[in-house]
Amino acid sequence: YILKENEQVYEYLSVLLSRLHKNKSLGVLVVDNARVSRNRITSLLRRHNFMTYEAMTGQQGLESLTRYNHIKLVIVANDLPDSSGIKILSEIRQRAKKEDIAVIGLADSGDTGLSARFIKSGANDYLAQPYGQEEFLCRIMQNIEYIENIELIRRAANSDFLTGLPNRRHFFERVAAATQLAPICQCLALIDIDHFKKINDTYGHDCGDYTLREIAKLVSSTFSQHIPARFGGEEFCVFMPNIGLQTAVKIFDDFRQALADIEFKFEGKVFHCAVSIGVTALEHGGVNGMLRKADEYLYQAKNTGRNRVEH
Ligand code: GH3
Ligand code: MG
Ligand code: MG
Ligand code: MG
Predict the structure, then answer these.
(1) Which is the closest atom of ligand 1 to the Cα of 208?
(2) Pocket of ligand 1 from Cβ distances under 6 Å
(3) CA of 169 to the centre of ligand 1 (A)
(4) Nearest residue to 236 via CA among 177, 288, 184, 298
(5) Ligand 2: distance of its center to the CA of 232 in Å?
(6) CA 243 vs CA 64, 181, 278: distances in Å
(7) Atom of ligand 1 nearest to the CA of 192
(8) Collapsing DSSP states into helix, strand and coil, what is residue 220?
């Protein structure tokens, strides 16, 4: 069945594919009851470092998808002992959109109706049997590129360019999702760097950027269990869905002290930096009410000497 290959094109595609897929974190699920066909697909995929999963029935396929959420590509045959590829595809589409999980339907080249039905039912693509390695790799590559590009765009839209922290927009999305789960015990803090303008004025804007990135790293690691964000220029916000006020105040005061102890070094300059923090618990008016309150406490912290936590 294997069509004549153009070795150079094949090599080129292989290189592209391995480069695209260097992190090996992407899983591919093959749902096909025919052993020969399934083995051919998985051995091609494994040669390119994909983590592959095999299923002989539709049910097994859906179970694998539930269990392994790094599966981003599904290759599905239509003839399955317990179901059809089209039905499984419809079930996958109820859980995940085209840009989250790509599905490629396996059709027979004689059966143009089936390939059309796959596409109409939400498949990203189809592969008509018999196919050559070159075509197989082209289609896999294109679909993975699509998924990865969407992921890149999403990440860029959700994060702050300078620090990589979630941005303000993404912060509100995550808080909305978290507050649906845990509406009782919530805290929010606004963190503002003290006299940050002085760092820019004294050591230059690059040093300011460096300082922001370093502080963002500390925010990110300290509050990895919560929802941190870069909120504005030199201001960060942290939402804690499951923590009481007294515990939160203690956590933020430890953070403040740890930061004040850091000796920042940039191009031969050595300096310290501090933050003021306003912390509040759940308020009427939801997260916007909490933000207003936290901002008042932050203002208090600034007016009573800085490098302190108010609540
Ligand atoms: P305060 O203690 O009252 O907060 O004083 P401050 O100097 O930190 O506050 P102010 O609001 O006067 O100045 C904030 C400065 O942050 C001004 C702005 O140029 C700087 N800034 C904001 N975003 C960035 C950035 O992305 N990079 C750098 N280098 N500076 C930034
Ligand atoms: Mg500020
Ligand atoms: Mg200010
Ligand atoms: Mg400031």
Answers:
(1) 29
(2) 162, 192-197, 200, 205, 208-209, 212, 233-234, 302, 306
(3) 20
(4) 298
(5) 7
(6) 35, 13, 15
(7) 4
(8) helix
Atom of ligand 1 nearest to the CA of 206: 29
The CA distance from 144 to 284, in Å, is 45
Query: C-alpha angle with apex 187: 182 to 192, nearest 5 degrees?
Result: 140
Q: What is the pTM of this model?
A: 0.78
CA of 296 to the centre of ligand 3 (A): 13
Write the ipTM: 0.97
Inter-residue contact 7 to 132 (CB < 8 Å):
no
In this structure, which residue's CA is closest to atom 4 in ligand 1?
A: 194
Closest CA to 43 of 151, 133, 146: 133
DSSP state of 84: B
Q: Two tokens at 267? A: 């191009």
Active site residue 234: yes
The alpha carbon of 280 is separated from its chain's Cα centroid by a whole number of angstroms, namely: 28
Give the DSSP per-residue string, 150-206. HHHHHHHHHB-TTT-SB-HHHHHHHHHHHHHH--SS-EEEEEEETTHHHHHHHH-HH
Reference 208, options 218, 193, 220; nearest CA is 193
Residue-wise pLDDT tens for the chain (311 aa)?
A: 344 555 566 666 666 666 555 546 789 999 999 999 999 999 999 988 889 999 999 999 999 999 999 999 999 999 999 999 999 999 999 999 999 999 999 998 888 899 999 999 999 999 999 999 999 999 999 999 999 999 999 999 999 999 999 999 999 999 999 888 766 789 999 999 999 999 999 999 999 999 999 999 999 999 999 999 999 999 999 999 989 999 999 999 999 999 999 999 999 999 999 999 999 998 777 899 999 999 999 999 999 999 999 99
